[in-house]
From TrEMBL, chains A, B, C:
<dbReference type="InterPro" id="IPR001602">
    <property type="entry name" value="UPF0047_YjbQ-like"/>
</dbReference>
<comment type="similarity">
    <text>Belongs to the UPF0047 family.</text>
</comment>
<dbReference type="Pfam" id="PF01894">
    <property type="entry name" value="YjbQ"/>
</dbReference>
<protein>
    <recommendedName>
        <fullName>Secondary thiamine-phosphate synthase</fullName>
    </recommendedName>
</protein>
<dbReference type="InterPro" id="IPR035917">
    <property type="entry name" value="YjbQ-like_sf"/>
</dbReference>
Amino acid sequence: MVIQEQIRIQTRGRNTYNITGEVSEAIGRAGIETGICQLFIQHTSASLILCENADPSVRTDLERIMSRLVPDGDPIFDHTLEGPDDMPAHVRSILTHMDLSLPISQGRPALGTWQGIYLWEHRTHPHQRNVTLTL
Amino acid sequence: MVIQEQIRIQTRGRNTYNITGEVSEAIGRAGIETGICQLFIQHTSASLILCENADPSVRTDLERIMSRLVPDGDPIFDHTLEGPDDMPAHVRSILTHMDLSLPISQGRPALGTWQGIYLWEHRTHPHQRNVTLTL
Amino acid sequence: MVIQEQIRIQTRGRNTYNITGEVSEAIGRAGIETGICQLFIQHTSASLILCENADPSVRTDLERIMSRLVPDGDPIFDHTLEGPDDMPAHVRSILTHMDLSLPISQGRPALGTWQGIYLWEHRTHPHQRNVTLTL
């Protein structure tokens, strides 16, 4: 049995957005007890991560270290058509994940206690993002 | 057909732990000839990687480069509640993988000759880690 | 229903190689309308990425930033048996992806408009690379 649906997320620019609720609801609607939930983001400048979900400073720290590893406006980049965050957004997406597969147990995503599913918007401007769920 | 089981690994602190044997045995027990084996670690400070399995210096070198990219005790981190390795463990997990999908061929994980499956413990203290296998 | 096939790619050394066509053709041959396509590279010194497919400078910039994060010939590396690009190739593979799962919709990989599937050869010399597709 394969069920596919789309989750649309309107971002307000660079930040992490918790989508655990949307994913859990889609699994609940499908009525699947045991299986795999495959998430896929159809973009190259936003990504999917599993991150600690209790202390918000984890996600601001994550933003800081990523900005140091892949700085906006770095002079080594030629691809700057859409601004100083254009190429860094592609690199950040590739260094993290555009696909994510989660086990489903007892009708829910089998996440650890501290795991949340986040969409990470890497562009500074707001974007409409599309995630495909395949169950 | 979906089979799910848990692998529990007791780590002795920051290091890589070869779990290829445990994964192969679970696939063997399930009796699946062709398919997909999905691994998922239910933590945010340890991760799953595929790594060269012949020369142990690959894994010590990996540890060194990761310690340089994401140093313990870096002053940019606010989330230091559990010590200088707390936030770096989250970043290392996100830069590597919490999920891993492997093809199964002829009843075994279809790994390349030099590929081994490792759990990478990022915390300096020992931890009990849980990996969910969905076949 | 599970279908498995091999894609063989002869690389000409370090570079990105678009394999979107090969993957789409395999999905077409299998005749699967809705499902998951799992890609797996059976090597530890080449990887699979989803990358912007319009402007080639994205991929040259990607090469540059990766060469800065994980430089060839870095003196911290002990594992240098096969040359200065040996250990960096392992690290680059782990920081990107050896597995990739894509949704299949309407008989095709459900990629975003700007997403292409690339094999990233990290060794400077040409290699024969093997990717397993499980549908």
